[in-house]
Each structure stands twice: as structure tokens, then as C-alpha cells.
């Protein structure tokens, strides 16, 4: 099986965030690693309200998808980590606005997140033919 590394197009090459790829294309799918409220142009985490962090996180995912010709409507599965599950309703309102039609399958859990972040989201995307 062949696979291709996908990098957020705004990522500063010096911004090292761990031993992983932003995304990997394999078998007609894009697997996007956990994304958070990061400004890839400045290499900084951007903390804010759950709504602000969810929006920035989903914008990062959207940018990665667009770099390989996909859209948010091509997302088939998301896994979401919230630092505080009590913020679920506020996060969910922003999350829902990014998907039209059939929403992706999703798992949402409470987790301890690095850098005092409030949300991290990874996803699986079926690439257009």
C-alpha cells in the first residue's frame, strides 16, 4: 500500500508538533491527525472560548482537506476530545455549522489536552474520485 503525507499549507517548516503527519492519504481516504487551535503561520496555539477554539480547529481541518481537493462534506468520521465535557453543547453548535447534509459519524470524549487546549479533533475523509 502506498501512502502520501499531507502538510497543512500554512505550516512553518520549523514548527514541530510531534512525530506525526498532519494527514496521510491511503486507499482513497485522508486520515487527518488530531488538530487544535493552532495558528500555523505563527506556530502558536491560540487559546480562547470553546467556540473560538472549535472554529479555529475546524478551519485547520478544512484547510488540510482543501489542499487535497476534499471538502468538509467528504468527512465520514470524527473523533473529538474536549477538555471539559460540560462545554459540549457550545462546541456542538459550532461543529454542526461546518457540515451540511449527512453529518459524519462521531465519537466525543473528555480528555486531558496539552497546552491547556479545549478541543482536539481528528477525522477520516473519503476522497472524491
Describe the structure.
With 129 residues, this protein is of the alpha+beta class. The chain has one domain: RutC-like (60s Ribosomal Protein L30, Chain: A, 2-Layer Sandwich), CATH 3.30.1330. The protein contains two helices and eight strands. It has helices spanning 50-66, 88-96, and strands at 4-6, 23-26, 29-35, 38-39, 44-45, 75-82, 105-110, 119-126. It has a six-stranded mixed β-sheet, covered by helices on one side. It has a two-stranded antiparallel ribbon with strand order 4-5. Strand 2 (23-26) and strand 3 (29-35) form a beta hairpin. Helix 1 runs parallel beside helix 2 (88-96). It is globular, with a radius of gyration of 14 Å. It starts with a strand and ends with a strand. The model has no long low-confidence stretch (mean pLDDT 94). This is 2-iminobutanoate/2-iminopropanoate deaminase. One of its GO terms (molecular function) is deaminase activity. It comes from Larkinella arboricola.
Tally the structural domains.
1
CATH fold type = 60s Ribosomal Protein L30, Chain: A
Strand content: 25-35%
Task: Tell me the CATH architecture.
Answer: 2-Layer Sandwich
State the end-to-end distance. 18 Å
Helix run count? 2
Mean pLDDT over the full residue set: 94
Determine the fraction of residues in helical runs and give it as a percent range: 10-25%
Question: Which word captures the global form?
Answer: globular
Looking at CATH, the homologous superfamily is RutC-like
Q: Please compute the radius of gyration using only Cα atoms.
A: 14 Å
Low-confidence stretches: none
Placed side by side, the strands forming the largest sheet appear as 1-2-3-8-6-7
Family: Belongs to the RutC family.
Protein name: 2-iminobutanoate/2-iminopropanoate deaminase
GO molecular function, one term: deaminase activity
Organism: Larkinella arboricola
Amino acid at each position: 500500500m502506498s501512502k502520501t503525507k499531507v502538510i497543512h499549507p500554512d505550516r512553518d517548516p520549523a514548527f514541530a508538533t510531534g512525530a506525526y503527519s498532519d494527514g496521510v492519504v491511503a486507499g482513497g481516504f485522508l486520515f487527518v491527525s488530531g488538530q487544535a487551535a493552532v495558528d500555523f503561520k505563527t506556530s502558536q496555539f491560540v487559546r480562547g472560548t470553546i467556540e473560538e477554539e472549535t472554529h479555529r480547529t475546524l478551519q485547520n481541518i478544512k484547510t488540510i482537506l482543501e489542499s487535497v481537493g476534499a471538502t468538509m462534506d467528504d468527512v465520514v468520521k470524527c473523533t473529538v476530545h474536549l477538555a471539559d465535557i460540560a462545554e459540549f453543547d457550545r462546541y456542538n453548535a459550532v461543529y454542526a455549522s461546518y457540515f451540511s447534509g449527512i453529518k459524519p459519524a462521531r465519537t466525543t470524549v473528555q480528555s486531558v489536552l496539552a497546552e491547556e487546549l479545549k478541543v482536539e479533533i481528528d477525522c477520516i475523509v473519503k476522497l472524491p474520485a
